[in-house]
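Chain A, query sequence.
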Amino acid sequence: MALAIMLRDHGGPDMLRPEAVEPGRPGPGELRLRQTAIGVNFHDCYVRSGLYRTLPLPGVPGIEAAGVVEEVGPGVTGFAPGDRIGYVTGGYGAYASARLLPAAQALRLPPGVTDRLAASVLLKGLTVEMLLRQVHRVEAGQTLLVHAAAGGVGRLLCQWAAHLGATVIGTVGSAAKEAIARAAGCRHVIRYREEDFTARVREITEGRGVDVAYDSVGRDTFEGSLACLARRGHLVNFGQASGPVPAFEVARLAAKSNSLSRPIVFHYIAERSALEVASAALFALLGSGAVRAETGQALPLAEAARAHELLESRQAEAPLILLPQDSDA
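Chain A, predicted structure.
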């Protein structure tokens, strides 16, 4: 038997309850994993609360983890018992000490990437690769606006963009976060609680605006982000930490020939070839040191509810991961 965190009804963190489950034997194309480290993300909180109704209930939430292959199902090639793998999945089920996983979603972890680091960075890193290389291909000399620049995705996004030669303008909520954003490659940092970020962006860019605005905040920043765009600028809304963006009249984009995207990372890694290209780019940058990622703050798997409380209250000082009791990560 395995320990899993079951969600039976939408609501607060207390809806996440440990239960014993039997993962079963792997079927064709599947792996059975002993999980060693499990990522905790805002996506999980949205699923738990009911903002996202994408997990049929009752169900086990969680979309990224790392672990060790215990058994290989019929027809699987390229993996063997004992292999260390990480994964990101839109099929959920990561909040468990053991599980079955389609082999097509598994990524062999390079020696320099620990299980804990993989569970901390894989979803965020693949999201950043999507944002910078696929949704909007960032080139040297471009100017970017990144909201929540000191957050988990924000730090990776700013580092990678600066590595590509872009000028990064980041927004943060405090002096402490300003230091984090500057260390992550932001050339300019705006404390949004103290000044109007839209006016400040116009000042920094001498009225031109930015080539692309990466906005994971949503409702509270959407209009300002749109106003920050240069002609032919691109607004990428990839999250809604402050709430969903209200209905939008698309004709408004014509004023400066702007474009708007609302990408979901799972759509960009659905094909195995795309997943391999994106993960190879991420692992290469991590290996070179051009992008530095933080290993998550660990809590026991049984304390998933506490992890959600920390994440939603903004008390977590690092990415959060869950460790099964028998984890050796």
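The mean pLDDT is 95. The domain at 2-114+295-323 is CATH 3.90.180.10 (Quinone Oxidoreductase; Chain A, domain 1).
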